[in-house]
What does this fold into?
Amino acid sequence: MRFRGEDLVGEFTGFTDRPAFADARGIADNLVSAYVDEELDRVDLIFNRYISPLTQYVWTQTLLPIQEAEVLGQGAADEVDEEDEDSSDLAEAHRKALWVYEPEPEELLAELIPEYAQLSVYRALLESTASEHGARMTAMRNAADNAKDVISDLTLEMNRVRQAEITQEILEVVAGAEGLS
It folds into this structure.
């Protein structure tokens, strides 16, 4: 980010090899408190998403504000058979249901959002670590394969040179023997 001329509010280093949940908790708590204090209006996680040792993608996830989640009953009409009256009644009941949260939604969100942020940051750290190890493993495998190819080529060249020297020595011995006869 510095290379791109961006101002950094903070930086977290030194734990990419073996990230611990405590590291993620510290990062997430800083981000959530800065968001709550309105120092930040948006928090995006940008990390390497691990697919396989050969494939990793740069991934962006909006951490805060939390995007609207799909609620039970939302989109239920798409899944029901229009001719089945019981199914359509069930979907309608879901849409009109009064959801009661205990404790109150504000208290619940005050507990869940930090947990969500901590788990999301921890997941990003783990996926980035797995991606780095996968990329290193692939690079080392490629380097070992290239080294084997170089060794094979050099061994073949060394054998050709040695064979040429032996042939040259045999020709000199034969030429010397012919000169004596």
